[in-house]
Amino acid sequence: MAHLVIWSHRAAEDLESIAAYIAQDSEAYASSVVRTVLQKCRVLAEFPHIGRVLPEYADDNLREIFAYSYRIIYRVEPKQVTIAAVVHGKRLLDLAVEP
Predict the structure, then answer these.
(1) What is the DSSP annotation of 20-66?
(2) Count of CB atoms within 10 A of residue 50's CB?
(3) Could you give the angle at the alpha carbon of 65 between the alpha carbons of 64 and 66, nearest 5°?
(4) Is it the case that residue 98 has pLDDT exceeding 80?
(5) What is this structure's pTM?
(6) Beta 80-88 vs 52-53: how paired, if at all?
(7) Domain boundaries, position 23
(8) What is the DSSP letter of 77?
(9) At a CB cut-off of 8 Å and minimum separation 6, what does 8 contact?
(10) Cβ atoms within 10 Å of 72's Cβ, excluding its own
């Protein structure tokens, strides 16, 4: 059974900020990054455990997948997947979201 994929407010803002930053140099690359992130997140509906468990946390339901150099952080719940954050891989992870 497919999970519902939901974006947290923070994750949506993260993706918008990433797109705006990249678009300063290349609108085409910004569109490509956003499209790839969204495609990767759609896969989570069918395969919610495809990502690895976050190394920073000991929680089997808090996972991540990668798109380019971005970490897509998400939480697996019984019937839904919540995208919690999208951060650059070189940034320190600050999950002040509902982990």
Answers:
(1) HHHHTT-HHHHHHHHHHHHHHHHHTTT-TT-SEEPTTS--TTEEEEE
(2) 12
(3) 125
(4) no
(5) 0.89
(6) unpaired
(7) 4-88
(8) -
(9) 82, 83, 84, 85, 97, 98
(10) 24
The DSSP 8-state label assigned to residue 82 in this structure reads E
Q: How far apart are CA 66 and CA 5, in angstroms?
A: 16
Q: Give the tokens for residue 99.
A: 């982990």
| The Cα angle at residue 75 between residues 70 and 76, in degrees rounded to 5 | 125
Residue that is written with structure tokens 């897509």 in the block: 72
Select from 4, 87, 99, 9 the least CA-distant residue to 42: 4
71-91 pLDDT tens trace: 999 999 999 999 999 998 877
For 32-67, how does the pLDDT look when each residue is reduced to its tens digit (9 = 90+)?
999 999 999 999 999 999 999 998 888 999 999 999
Within-domain flag for 84? yes
Residue whose entry in the numeric block shows the structure tokens 């970490």? 71
Number of domains in the chain: 1
Is 95 within a domain? Answer: no
